[in-house]
Amino acid sequence: MGTLLRTALRNLSRQKRRTILLSGAIAFGIMVVTIINGFAGSFLENVTENFGQLLAGHIFIEGVERIEPGNEIQIIRDDEALLAAIDRSGVQARYITRRSDVRGTLVFGGRTASQQIVGADWSVESALTERIILEQGSFDGVRAGNGLIVGRPTADLLRLEVGDPVLVRLRTITGQQNVGEFRIAGISFDPGFVAGLTAYADRAYINELLQIGVDEYRQLGILLSTLTEIDEAADRVFEEISRELAVFERGTEDPDSNPISALFEQARTEEWEGVRYRLYTLNEIVSDAQQIVVVLNQVSIVVLVVLLGITMIGITNTFRMVMFERIREIGTMRAVGMQKQQVLKLFLSEALMLAFIGVIAGLVLSAIVMAGLSQIYIGLDTPIFVLLNEGYFTFAVRPGQAVLHVTLVVMFTLTAAWFPARRASELPPVEALRSTN
Fold first, then answer.
1. How many alpha carbons fall within 13 Å on the CB side of residue 370?
2. Interatomic CA distance for residues 215 and 276, integer angstroms
3. Which CATH number is 99-212's, of 1.10.3470, 1.10.10, 2.40.40, 2.60.120?
4. Half-sphere exposure of 164 (CA within 13 A, CB side)
5. Residue 251: how many CB atoms within 10 A of its CB?
6. Model pTM greater than 0.85?
7. Which letter does DSSP use for residue 249 in this model?
8. What does the pLDDT read at residue 389?
9. Residue ranges of domains in the chain
């Protein structure tokens, strides 16, 4: 076997230009699909992390209190039992957040804009200040009091400037009309995602407007240290909470339905009293992003197949030329006792060596390109910030995808070389020796 591979390598080295062109085509295909696969591998992780920071958690718990049938309010009045359950679950959290949010109408200068306003505890959510990029103003005015940070689209619509007073019409937790007066503390860059659709304020002031206690809130968020453990951690927390508290069941029997929609539907359709808790995860919120990863992986395979299909034509034609150029050599080998199968294996070994040269070169090139791209700082003030990690592109090549790509390359290359190689192995020695080539 070693002699066969050495002979195959020697034959490839005799036609360096041809070998470089064919292996280069294979390398280009491997490089492109590896980069796509690497981007897809980190895509979901980056989206999950960035949305986790903006939404203040990877696991979310909400309390639903039924006042009367058909009349429920979302509130967590006492979280002692919840925190104890989280502690018993053994989940390692970076920190736990408590938020109160409300849908309100901003009014300024005769103009109005509907806006989701999130009340955060800024002393805990330090990471939020790293994800929200301010074009004007500062976070000092929103950390306490009635400061409000709005996105650029809202500021442009209402013609707001930092320091302007703005009224907000909203409903209290029980549905009564209320009005709050805010002062614009900052205007944030609009990335076209959640941050551009949300205004941020201090939770204590939002609680006051909602007419709930200062220690009460609407949503508890758990920000995890490891993103790969979101689903497992959620199962453990849910199990511990359900031991002592009434909960809405997670999941749905219909695989085509949205699990969060099904979870919220329970509060409206089921018979229950008092307070129940629902738990859902960021993975369920960004489930569409998981479909994007699947599509990207499928695209990478299609791209590879197309490129290999084009390369196959070149390999087939090349090996036909090789067979024609080496007819006398094949005749000599057959005359000294080389069997048909050995001639076939020799040509297929050359094709295999060509494939591996291309694969190795493609992987090296893709590693260089990905390393280079990951050093370029794109920034957080960009519409694609949610795809980045701290403003940088990241890549994570999944071994299973890489093995699949290499397997496809080997299969396509051997298939392309099979028919010329078989024809070469079936050449009668006498006729081959008579050839003038």
1. 22
2. 19
3. 2.40.40
4. 19
5. 8
6. no
7. P
8. 76
9. 2-50+288-434, 99-212
